[in-house]
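Batch job 17 of 40 flagged for manual review because the log was empty.
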Amino acid sequence: MKILPKAIDMIRIQSRVSLPVFVAAGLLASATTQAQSAAGTVRSSKDASVLQGVSVSVVGGTGTATTDGNGAFTIQLPTTSLAPRHSSQELGLELSSGRLLVSATSDLPVSARLLTPSGSVLWSGHAVPTNGQASFLPRPVAAFHGIVLLQVSQGSAHTATRLPLEGASFSGNAEAQLFAARSAAYPVLSFKKTGYHDTTYSMTATSQQGIQVSMRDTTSSVGPTTCTLPTGPSAGSGSFTNYWFGQGSWQENGHYALACGYHGQEPSGQNSDVITNIANPGYFVAIPGKTSDDFDKRMMCGACVELSGQNGTKIIATVADECPENSNQPCMNNPNGHLDVSYPAFSKLGFSVGNPSGTTWKYVACPITGNVVVRIKPGNSDQLYVENTILPIKDVLVNGKSSTKLSYGAWQLPRGARGATVTIKDYSDRTITYTIPTTLALDTDQNTGLQFPTCK
């Protein structure tokens, strides 16, 4: 939640960021291998009935399990997780404009390659350092969408890290890549059963219990549906300013706490802001609200907006924060049309001034990847955040009883969140139903394994 006025002038900087570095043994990541486990229940998305005989495995790992008559499974995970190391043999990595730059330790050739979670090589290359730096332009031939392992070696020095890949290039901007690399170190489970679509589940820890997975049968495909969207300002009635967390956003528990409840990080200055569980980690906006204590537009949290920049540039950002009208003059001047835009998103729009008026924006469906995520608010076990959705959420029902959307983005449930079966209703009155694990820790993202249909 922002409490300071926003700067008007922009300082443009090149998108360049150092990647988190992990030392590897040979070409495999260095880590302590220890027995971990995952357990949960698999159900049909059609009627929530339990599914017996589902094959469960670890993507890129060993060990399998099969669900029993109650749809339950437990799988042992001999997990090898990438762990940070500090060593004189580290190879520094940077990513700039899609190019991989390696700070070499000698004049020896540097080798690099990208691997899928199953170990398939998507791309490999070699380069001779110039002035202590080797340069690569990774361009995988095979189409792949997801997290890949980047391995780099020079002589006895080896480095590994994880990055998101979209087809032939790294996805998103450098800040989004940095965020994804930090958050992608946990196992991914694969679920297979004849007559059902293959399903994956991304764990949020190296060992996890109470996992709930929903599988869709192959005879009941749910295609795009007609969606109702919030209305935006008429053409030319908008205005934008830019902001970043360091200007005064509230901090707690090691992250910036935004008005909608999202977790934010600012690892390296104003152009590095990212948040979790939205379509693009670096593209988000704050929408005007009466005061910090009366966020009257909180029901728009999670909505996506398409912003038009100069020369036809268009981006999609997520409503994740509030711009208080009582302390921010641009929001006070145009409460129905103004947006305070994250610095990476504003920079992409290419405006020559820092406070453009007569701008255009509209609400759109969010181009979300992955599933809906829920999280119990720390200190309030009966309050729930719902994130990573295609449309903003209208209601969360427990046993038919509605919940209340609080001013800081959480839903006040009529009972404790753990073990509750919640029906989540979006802006178009579409619903998904999910049972929250009884063991879910506070302030921990829980992948529901469910997502609303896309919009026509």
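Reviewer: the log was empty due to a logging misconfiguration, but the result itself is present. The chain has four domains: 34-82+186-215, 87-174, 227-364, 373-447. Unflagging and moving on to job 18.
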